[in-house]
Structure formats: C-alpha cells, structure tokens
Design brief:
metal ion binding; 321 residues; Rossmann fold; binds fe (ii) ion; ferrochelatase activity; 8 strands; four-stranded parallel beta sheet; Ferrochelatase; single chain; cytoplasm; binds the ligand C=CC1=C(C)c2cc3[nH]c(cc4nc(cc5[nH]c(cc1n2)c(C)c5CCC(=O)O)C(CCC(=O)O)=C4C)c(C)c3C=C; alpha/beta; Ferrochelatase_C; 11 helices
Amino acid sequence: MAANPGVLVVNLGTPQAPTAAAVRTYLAEFLSDTRVVEIPALLWRPLLFGLILPLRSRRVAHNYATIWMDEGSPLAVYTQRIADGLRQQLRCPVETAYRYGTPSLEQGLDRLSALGCDEIIVLPLYPQFSATTSATVFDRIAQIYRQRRAMPALQWIADYATDPGYISALAQSVQQHWAEHGRNERLLMSFHGLPQRNVSLGDPYQAQCEATARALADALELSPDEWALSYQSRFGKQVWLQPYTEPTLAEWAEGGLRSVDIICPGFPADCLETLEEIRIQAAETFCEAGGETLTYIPALNDNPQHIQALAALLSPRLGQA
Ligand SMILES: C=CC1=C(C)c2cc3[nH]c(cc4nc(cc5[nH]c(cc1n2)c(C)c5CCC(=O)O)C(CCC(=O)O)=C4C)c(C)c3C=C
Ligand SMILES: [Fe+2]
Ligand SMILES: [Fe+2]
C-alpha cells in the first residue's frame, strides 16, 4: 500500500544555452522521437542530420537568444517556478523533469524515489492531450521501468483541457490583463499546431483545444465575433491544423482590424513559441499587414491561480482532497 506520494511535473524540454550547438543537441533528441515525427527513420534521419539540424540550429539559437532570461530558458525557468509553487502548496515532494534534455524523466523519477516516494503522480504540463507530447512521456516512463525490477505506484494526469480551475485561472488572467492594459478589438486563442494527419488518425488534440477555447470564451462571456481559435508553430511541409495563426492575423489586419489580444492557452509556461513566435514575430506580421497593436497575454506561469488550479487537480490523487 503506497503511503508517501510525490509529484513529477513534466514539460517538453529546452536547450541548455541559446547557442547553435546546444539547440542542435536538443532538436536532435526531440525530432528523433518517432511519436513527434512519424516519417520512417531510414528516410527521416538523413534529412534531419544532413539538412535540417545544420540549417535550423543557428537560426533557432538566434530566436532563443532574444528571449533568454538571466536564469536560463523561459520554459525551464517557469516550469521550475510552477513546481516550486506546487511544493509550497502540497505537503509532498515535487520534482521537475523533461522529455528531452535534463533533468530527464529518469532523473526526476529517481529523485522522488530517493526522497522516499512510493507513489508518483505524473503531471505533464500539456492541458490538451496529444500523442506527440503526452503519450511520448508515458512511453518513456514505461520504457524506464521495463529495465527495473521494482517500481512505485504511478498515477497519470492525461489532460485537463476543461478543468474548471484551469479555465477560471485563464479567464481571471485575461480579465486582469484587460483591467490593467485595456481591451483590444478581438481575442485570438492560439494553440500549438499538429499535422492534420495525426488528428485524422485519432489524436484527440484538436477536439481538446476546441473545448478549452469554448470554455474560456464562455467564462469570459464572449460572443462569437469577439474571439477565434488558431494554430501556430507549423513545422515542415505537411498540412497542419487550420486556421494558421499568422495568416489569420494578417487577414484580420487587411480586413480593417487594428488591435488584437492574443493568448496561448495550451502553453502553461511561457517559452520560445509564445515569447518569440507570438509576442515578437506574430506582432510584426500583424503590423506589416496594417494592424496597429497585437498584445500578447502571458502564460499562466507561476501566477497563484494557476498554482492553485494545478494543486486542486493533484490533491485528490494525493489523498489531500
Ligand atoms: C513535427 C514537429 C512538431 C510537433 C508535432 C510538435 C508538437 C507540439 N509541440 C508542443 C509544444 C512545444 N513545442 C516547442 C518547440 C518546438 N516544437 C517543434 C516541433 C514540433 N512540435 C520544434 C522543432 C520546436 C523547437 C523550436 C523550433 O525549432 O522551431 C515548445 C517550446 C520549447 C522551448 O524551448 O521553449 C513547446 C512548449 C505541443 C504542445 C505540441 C503538440 C500539441
Ligand atoms: Fe512543438
Ligand atoms: Fe516556432
């Protein structure tokens, strides 16, 4: 019978430094994952190692450099702060781990075991489930314990796309932002994209993004013309989920919209994809198309409502309901 629970807060992972070498190491591990890129390895690996990594690493390192914080990569800084906040709220050990890079899932699980945890609740910081993100965490954990003879009891938070605490934290954050900075003409909710093929083959991600967006619009009492959903961060040549974020913003600007608020509810922690791709690049796209103001509403990060919502999600599983 398990008596000493612990929490593993998991996120994607991020480079150790904003340099081409560190980005290459990170992308090589990330993009070699067959859950992420489903092209057969014999075709994909020569392309990845011969062309994509040499060309992409330098450019992406430059992008990371524009958002790098004194303490490191924003994704790691905010993930750590979320874990610190949870540790203060929950009466049990909380560790962070990344699917790619360090601390690895294996290191995180071992740290919890070393602290005496015989039950581990895994919380991937992906509110919407996708096989490309959440399932690959699950795969890796199963793979780690395949090589062990003893393992803790494990609990798994698969998704929390419409969790009332999470939706209410998002809604409060938007309302507070509007109260402090004023409200623009429309709200765009931008989620990380996914190849359309993945969804056609059964990935529930798109339906969960739509459910989150609708729940947030309802919580904010928005009418249909006051908000929209879009998908960002397309990678490669395939068709991804649509509408795409930047073309949507350009269309809106060309159609006469001057000011837009944008929030990325699928990213609990700010990172390259929000701070650089949206706050910097998408704002440029919007203004080049004739828009005046694109305001990025920050991720929930370590805001107290966010910590409280995640703690409420975890508490019943810790026997702390
Ligand atoms: C085929 C490629 C990719 C899929 C599928 C994909 C899905 C996916 N990713 C996230 C969350 C994040 N992605 C981030 C960065 C990032 N994503 C891809 C590719 C795919 N993502 C790449 C190549 C990169 C690195 C940057 C780049 O080279 O452009 C990040 C930020 C990491 C950071 O260090 O800040 C996050 C977070 C989700 C939620 C998702 C599917 C639902
Ligand atoms: Fe991604
Ligand atoms: Fe991107």
